[in-house]
């Protein structure tokens, strides 16, 4: 299934044109690889990483939806792997700084 269709059917975009605009920004990834084409094929088991407001959403595709249905139907097709975590780079910097303060550095 095309990534733009999937975003609409999973209710992450209201229309295919809005989904294509999100994909075109170049911030989405499939299995760690940047998505550069609007017709990128997505299958079951793929992990999608996408910006969602000030955070990042990571989902695993459990099944491919046949239509854009109600939210409960869409949510049954994926599993959230990282529930709205802050941007990963900022989190990593904070942790390394905190480890140095607490004296948890390797000797």
Automatic annotation (TrEMBL):
<dbReference type="Pfam" id="PF01479">
    <property type="entry name" value="S4"/>
</dbReference>
<keyword id="KW-0694">RNA-binding</keyword>
<feature type="domain" description="RNA-binding S4">
    <location>
        <begin position="1"/>
        <end position="65"/>
    </location>
</feature>
<protein>
    <submittedName>
        <fullName>RNA-binding S4 domain-containing protein</fullName>
    </submittedName>
</protein>
<dbReference type="InterPro" id="IPR036986">
    <property type="entry name" value="S4_RNA-bd_sf"/>
</dbReference>
<dbReference type="GO" id="GO:0003723">
    <property type="term" value="F:RNA binding"/>
</dbReference>
<dbReference type="InterPro" id="IPR002942">
    <property type="entry name" value="S4_RNA-bd"/>
</dbReference>
């Amino acid at each position: 299934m095309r990534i733009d269709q999937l975003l609409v059917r999973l209710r992450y975009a209201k229309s295919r044109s809005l989904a294509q605009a999100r994909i075109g920004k170049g911030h989405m990834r499939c299995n760690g690889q940047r998505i550069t084409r609007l017709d990128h094929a997505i299958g079951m088991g793929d992990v999608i990483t996408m910006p969602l407001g000030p955070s990042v959403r990571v989902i695993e595709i459990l099944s491919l939806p046949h239509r854009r249905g109600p939210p409960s139907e869409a949510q049954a097709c994926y599993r959230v792997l990282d529930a709205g975590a802050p941007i990963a780079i900022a989190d990593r910097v904070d942790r390394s700084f905190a480890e140095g303060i607490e004296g948890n550095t390797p000797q």
